Amino acid sequence: MVKEIDPEQTVNFIKFLGTSGARFVMIRQLRHSGGLWINCGGTNVLIDPGPGSLVYCAKSRPKLDPSKLDAIILTHRHLDHSGDINVMIEAMTEGGFKKKGIVFCPEDALSGDPVILRYIRDFPEKIEIIKADQKYKAGNFVFESSQRHIHPVETYGLKFSVNGKTVGLLTDTRNFVQLARFYSTDILIAGVVFPESRPGIDHFSLEDLKALLPSVKPAKTILTHFGMAMLKANPRLCAQNLSRELNLEVIAATDGMVLQL
Ligand SMILES: [Zn+2]
Ligand SMILES: [Zn+2]
Fold this sequence. Notes:
Blueprint: E1 13-18, H1 22-27, E2 33-40, E3 43-47, H2 53-59, E4 71-73, H3 79-82, H4 85-92, E5 102-106, E6 126-130, E7 135-138, E8 141-148, E9 156-162, E10 165-170, H5 179-182, E11 187-191, H6 206-216, E12 220-224, H7 228-233, H8 235-246, E13 250-252, E14 258-260
Parallel strand pairs: 3-4, 4-5, 5-6, 10-11, 11-12, 12-13
Antiparallel strand pairs: 1-2, 1-14, 2-3, 7-8, 8-9, 9-10
One zinc ion is lined by residues 76, 78, 151, 172.
């Protein structure tokens, strides 16, 4: 008998249902791609449910029950972030029979070549469009969107508080100077796809993070969203080296890791 997380008992945590970044680590599932499950004062939010999110919720110990979700947020429509978005909306709403929860996503997740299927759009209580520099709320979870990131599709980073600690989620982007202002948080979760920046590719790297951290100085930085080159470089060692060089706490996320806040 698997014990389920009782939202009354276990509150204020972030669980990494996946730490893969970009295509090949996701396709080969060298790291999982389930997104982040956040509990904020009893409100449950899932961010970026990539492929396998539903399976990793069910396999999670203690189990995470998607019908307990209050919101699902997409930072952008790329598959490694949105692969399971439809099934997670269906799971949140108990197969569409219980109209509940809010879905937050950029406009291009719904238009053109949409990742959120039309027949599923009536299932949640509402769908809210994420725009730049706005504040949103679902239950106890309040978050701010960043300015638009530099990435091939409409992408926003997020900032929120859990139990009085501010958390930044620096999702896919090319490095740009304004990132430092938005991501000045107690805890910074940074997607680092490559060890070194690659000119012409709109992704954030460990090298970019190294340049950003001295002006942001988070109490804790968590590396995630690893591409192949990052896995080869060993994220745990990279985190240790960065930590030593900058005299800041830096750790590498692992699949299933829980951060209690
Ligand atoms: Zn990505
Ligand atoms: Zn992306």
